[in-house]
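Ticket #4471: structure export looks truncated?
Reporter: QA, pipeline team
Priority: medium

Steps to reproduce: submit the single chain below to the structure queue and open the exported record.
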Amino acid sequence: MKTWKKLETYIRDKNLLVVEVMSRFSQGQGIIYSAYLAFYLLLSIFPFIMALVGIMGFIPFEVDEALNRLIDIFPMEIHGGLRSFIEVNRRSSNLLGYSLFFLLWSSARAIGAIRKSLDRIYDARNRQNFIKARFFDSIKNFAFIFLLLLVLFFPTAVKLTKIGTVFLKFNIPYVLTLVESLQWVFIFTLLFGVLSFVYMRMGSLKQRFDDVKVGALLVALAWVILSFLFNGIISLSSNLIYGAFNVVIGLLIWFQINMVVFILGAHLNVVLSERRFPYD
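Actual output as written to the record:
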């Protein structure tokens, strides 16, 4: 009997938590802000790819695996369009300069959009002047890109590890399988770390790790699941929309859904923090 009461209390508490998070999401215009974030992230993704392709032109070793990992981040149905985009821009001699300029501008706007969204959720006011805010946005932007590059180049490091085991004649059973398996653990852990960093430091009001870890973990899990589920949604519209429009619309919808989850995670962190410290 006591077990059933505990279970009933637990379910009721979780239902109230979900209702509270959804209520704050609705009152805080979560759909509008998720579209706002999705637009600027979409605006920054193509200059990022162009800059990455331009930088890879100066790297002496094979980096196709990193490019494949970059493409694999997105839904399967738009892989063909992204590959065509990369192949076309690989031939451009002025690619790096133009792409870096647009990358810095568009990604700074994306970071600013994240900051404004989190400030609204955290009920914080940004008291920094325009120049100072842009300066810190640029620093956060470079930190974010650095973390993302770690994710992209990890498969290349795995490939080099395989080559090293062959040349050094290591014959440890299951070592390559273990390395390949750990890359997914690493990528998920790094994704969790990036989300925690965003929740903690991207807003004007800084947060503690304990206050953001639950939301960051659930959002990381949701993003991984959505990457698989969204392939079916895009395939339903692939017969109606073709070429570049399919890529742009597919990415925009994908970013929109992921940003809805991101904002829900931020609201969840705030609600859980208020429950832990009700008088703060």
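Status: closed, not a bug. The export was complete when the record was re-opened. Leaving a note from the reviewer for reference: Confidence is low (pLDDT under 50) at residues 163-169.
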